[in-house]
Amino acid sequence: xxxxxxxxxxxxxxxxxxxxxxxNRYRLICVTEPEQFWYEFNRQHLDxxxxxxxxxxxxxxxxxxxxxxxxTVGIVLISDRGESIDRIIGLEMGADDYIASPFELxxxxxxxxxxxxxxxxxxxxxxxxxxxxxxxxxxxxxxDYELExxxxxxxxxxxxxxxxxxxFELLVVFALHxxxxxxxxxxxxxTSHRNQDVxxxxxxxxxxxxxxxxxxxxxxxVHGEGYLFAASPRD
Length: 235
Prior knowledge:
22% strand, alpha/beta, Arc Repressor Mutant, subunit A, Rossmann fold, 235 residues
C-alpha cells in the first residue's frame, strides 16, 4: 500500500482519484488547504505527493518549492494551464513529473507507478551502499562508554545506564560534536526541545542529570558560552 498526499481544491477530481486509485494499492490523503497539507505531511509516512499548481496565488508552486526543501518525497504536479513555463518552473523547483489537465486517469496511474518504481530503485541502491557501515554508524564509543543510536542505549562495560529521551538526545548531540563549545541555544535547536516552550535552564537540568549518571568530568561548563563535551569518541 502506497500513501499519496493530494493537494487540490477540485472536490470532484479528488472523488474521481479516490474511486480509481484506491483499489490499486494506493491510500489517498486528500486536502484542500496548505495548512491541512502540512498537517498531514508531518504526521505520517508518504510515498508520493500530488500537487495541483493551478491554485490561486501560486499556492501549489510555493508548496512544491518548500516541500522539496524539506523532503525527498516524490512530487507530481497537475495543471490545466497549457504554458510550458509552468512545467519548467515546477520541475526546476524539484518536482519529479508533470501532467496536464484534463488527463486520463490511466495515464496518471502509469506515471505514479513509474515514479514509485524509480524511487524504490534509488532506495535499494542507498540501502546497499550504507549496509556495510550500518553497524559502525549505529555505535559511538568514548571513554568507557558505548552509545547505541538505534536502540537508544548507553552502556558502561556490562552496565546499562538508563536515560530519558531528553538525556539521550542531548548526549547524542554532545557525542557528535566532541571538544566543541556548544551554546544552550544550539543544544535546544538540535533536540526535540526546539518545538517546546522551554528556556536555557532546561539544558542545565538535563546536563546535571547526565553528570549524575556518568562521569561529571565529561561535561565541562564554559562560563558565558555553554558546554563542552570533553571525551574523544573512538574509531
